[in-house]
Amino acid sequence: MLSQYYKKDFKILGKLENDMRLVYLDNAATTQKPDVVLAAVKRYYTVDNANPHRGVYELAMRATDVHEQARNVIAAFLNAERDEEIIFTRNATEALNLVAYSYGLANLKTDDEIAVAVSEHHSNLVPWQRVSEITGAKVVYLYLDEHGEYTKEELTSKIGSSTKILAMAHVSNVLGIENPVKLATRLVHQNGGIAVIDCAQSVAHMKVDVRDIDADFVAFSGHKIYAPMGIGVLYGKYELLDKMPPFLSGGDMISHVHESGTTYAKPPRKFEAGTCNLGDEAGLVEAIRYVEKIGLDKIREHETELCKKALDGLNSLGGIDIYPAGSDKTRSLISFNIRGVHPHDAATIMDSFGVCVRAGHHCAEPLMERLGIGSCLRASFALYNDMDDVDIFIRSVEQTRKVMGIGS
Ligand SMILES: Cc1ncc(COP(=O)(O)O)c(C=O)c1O
């Protein structure tokens, strides 16, 4: 079991929650941070801190190196062709907004179509609704079948010559199923459009290869892959980035500024206005090294086993609705409801057993509407969870039913 070696790297997991072992199963919301990541952030501020690009003194040049080396590590991690295709943002949300407001506003016009998977997190859905309001382009939703999957028929019927942009998550943050991003990307390319793939829920659980997917843009947040909050990444194909107008403007993103106007820096700096978050970039680099050392394949195998055991446990209890029903394709998270119990009540009771799970609409309200529910519970796994965590989780669900007077 992976976790027996790695749990000790995360101090917070050794703490008690309500006098009980902390069973942290809200990893899809944010992961805990290993000591090496915390140390890397501290090291940056202790040893290398200065404002990058702006100083000619030794320390500032070291800070610039930290920044550019981080770009290099992330480019290799995603298999990007060039370092300049990596843009630092605050999080996935900002990265997706950058694409919507820069590429979207510059390229969309009335009656163009934006194909958006209905299961998207609001971060890859609301920006497209906003851009649609401004440009007159139409949002066309892609719908899931009863197994929570986007079929080839659905994709081919919705992605056509009017589709200028496809917005789809690699893995849904509610259903946990890998979406057919390669097929969807190929279809949108055949029609002359571009693909924006949200990898916030895949990057910590499986290899993301931007060239294999052939995505035009990929976004993720550092904090979901064991790095600090406040650092995110946008990958974009260089030839697209080069033609796009800036998103935010100000310092660092310019070539020259005159009273009469401004010329802009080349990508990626054109899209990195203001001082970047170098401390957390250093943390992200260390987090990537950490998961790569363990191996994403091993992590995936481990989390799949945890998911399988948790699914078996939930199914054996009875009275549990799992979304999508009967699916065994989820690899890192399970969304469910305890019949007759509001998810917020359930999550509160489970917390009294030291179990942290998410309750709510998970920033995916259109998906909730398709599923015919207002909210649900979500247990999501990481490399440090173990089989004991799953046992405690299942017992806490059982106890919740008892407390609520169900099934006893
Ligand atoms: C699939 C997906 N996309 C985007 C986001 C937004 O991430 P952030 O809040 O870090 O920007 C999340 C967060 O849960 C997510 O699960």
Report what the structure shows:
With 408 residues, this protein is an alpha/beta fold. The chain has two domains: 138 residues, Alpha-Beta Complex (Aspartate Aminotransferase, domain 1), CATH 3.90.1150.10; 255 residues, Type I PLP-dependent aspartate aminotransferase-like (Major domain) (Aspartate Aminotransferase, domain 2, 3-Layer(aba) Sandwich), CATH 3.40.640. Helix content is 40%, strand content 17%. It is built from 14 helices and 17 strands. The strands form five sheets. The chain has a seven-stranded mixed beta sheet, with helices on both faces. It has a four-stranded antiparallel beta sheet with strand order 13-14-17-16, with helices on one face. The chain is globular. The chain starts with a helix and ends in a 5-residue tail after the last helix. 49% of the residues are buried. The mean pLDDT is 96. The site of pyridoxal-5'-phosphate has 14 residues, from helix 4.
Give me a quick take on this structure.
This protein is of the alpha/beta class.
Protein traits:
2 domains, 408 residues, Aspartate Aminotransferase, domain 1, 17% strand, four-stranded antiparallel beta sheet, binds pyridoxal-5'-phosphate, seven-stranded mixed beta sheet, alpha/beta
